[in-house]
């Protein structure tokens, strides 16, 4: 089977193929995710614990399969890995949308989680191989712009198809990705693939070595320790909020008459507003925040952004007005977008080249571990008590991250020897 995927029937050029496939993928993901959680709650009938558990299964699947699926891209073919990945993601979406049961949601998320790990890293590695390291930066920049536009179109399409039935955007998104996989089988080129040398492959042994090296570095770098802890706390708190804030709004408030009271239209509009505000927040930190702040005291804006997230989560739990609750949701996403580039700059300035990828990978893994560990208990709490109670606990769990960031704000840009002196 895999041998049949190795060569295209009609080989296309790599760069246009990359733009088309990422645009179609961005469209399909926006199409599915805009109303997916509303679909799970209204049509499938999942309770808060089940909704969080579905998300936890997805996170655990991605975490467990990242290394095994990465070996396909490293040893056999980036092209095959990408095609298989999109096919599995599309099948997972379609399974969840067509069958519409709790079991189908679990199976669908396992499938798309495995599929995502097939594409993760393989897609970027494929286009880098095909166009060369010198040209790939421009390709990635252009791809980001195209993906943003495709995502907006996907969000609008989700609202339109959601008027037919809430399952329709999910099913159409799945079918779109399956057709994308077929199209890639026909046309996706792979002219410059070379198997990854043994020492550079992602294996479980390599993962263990990464962990040991990262922990060794964290012992000597206060900023690294802080980011690992902050990432873990964010993961512990985020899963319950990401999965249940829509349920909180659906249970508590009627949708505005300006949307005709229709939930599909309303949540599409909410998603578009959130996207625009997050983009503006990202621009604010990247272009408008004084450089001296990022250079000398990045801990202050990052800590304030973390505090805004905590307050926003608590606000969604406590406020009794739909627009105030939405404002809290939008503030949280904007705060995350605002702090992300500052955090990236801050972290990278405290890492050397050989350890940079290791530590950045560890922070991502810490977040995933936090989501897997924190999601089910908080989901069960939401089912046994109420969603507001679970959200308030999530806010309390994340609150220490503000204090952690404030404690390390003075050592942000100093050399390694000075980090040790401040412990």
TrEMBL record:
It is found in: Cell membrane. This is MFS transporter. The keyword Glycosyltransferase does not apply. Residues 1-412 form the Major facilitator superfamily (MFS) profile domain. It is a multi-pass membrane protein. Pfam families: MFS_1 (PF07690). The keyword Acetylation does not apply. It comes from the Bacteria. Keywords: Membrane, Transmembrane, Transmembrane helix. It comes from Terrabacter aeriphilus. The chain crosses the membrane at residues 20-39, 51-73, 80-104, 171-188, 226-245, 265-290, 302-326, 387-406.
């Amino acid at each position: 089977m895999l041998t049949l995927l190795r060569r295209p029937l009609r080989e296309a050029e790599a760069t246009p193929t990359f733009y088309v496939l990422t645009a179609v993928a961005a469209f399909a993901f926006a199409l599915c995710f805009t109303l997916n959680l509303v679909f799970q709650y209204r049509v499938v009938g999942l309770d808060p614990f089940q909704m969080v558990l579905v998300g936890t299964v997805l996170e655990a699947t991605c975490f467990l399969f990242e290394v095994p699926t990465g070996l396909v891209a490293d040893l056999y073919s980036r092209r095959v890995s990408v095609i298989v990945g999109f096919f599995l993601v599309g099948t997972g979406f379609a399974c969840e949308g067509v069958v519409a049961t709790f079991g189908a949601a679990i199976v669908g998320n396992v499938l798309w989680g495995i599929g995502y790990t097939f594409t993760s890293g393989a897609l970027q590695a494929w286009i880098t191989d095909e166009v060369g390291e010198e040209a790939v930066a421009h390709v990635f920049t252009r791809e980001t712009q195209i993906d943003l536009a495709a995502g907006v179109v996907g969000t609008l399409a989700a609202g339109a198809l959601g008027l037919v039935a809430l399952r329709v955007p999910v099913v159409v998104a799945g079918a779109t990705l399956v057709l994308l996989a077929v199209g890639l089988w026909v046309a996706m080129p792979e002219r410059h693939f070379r198997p990854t040398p043994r020492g550079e492959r992602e294996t479980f042994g390599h993962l263990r070595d990464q962990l040991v090296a990262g922990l060794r570095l964290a012992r000597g770098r206060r900023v690294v320790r802080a980011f690992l802890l902050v990432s873990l706390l964010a993961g512990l708190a985020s899963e319950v909020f990401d999965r249940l804030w829509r349920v909180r709004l659906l249970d508590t408030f009627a949708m505005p008459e300006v949307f005709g009271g229709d939930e599909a239209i309303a949540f599409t509009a909410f998603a578009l507003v959130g996207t625009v505000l997050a983009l503006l927040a990202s621009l604010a930190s990247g272009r408008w925040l004084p450089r001296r702040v990022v250079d000398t005291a990045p801990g202050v804006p990052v800590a304030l952004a973390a505090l805004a997230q905590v307050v926003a989560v608590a606000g969604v739990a406590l406020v009794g007005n739909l627009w105030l609750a939405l404002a809290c949701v939008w503030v949280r996403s904007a705060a995350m977008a605002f702090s992300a580039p500052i955090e990236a700059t801050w972290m990278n300035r405290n890492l050397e080249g050989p350890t940079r990828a290791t530590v950045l990978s560890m922070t991502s893994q810490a977040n995933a571990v936090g989501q897997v560990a924190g999601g089910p208990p908080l989901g069960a709490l939401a089912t046994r008590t109420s969603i507001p109670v679970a959200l308030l606990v999530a806010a309390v769990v994340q609150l220490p991250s503000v204090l952690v960031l404030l404690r390390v704000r003075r050592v942000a840009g100093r050399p390694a020897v000075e980090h040790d002196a401040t412990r």
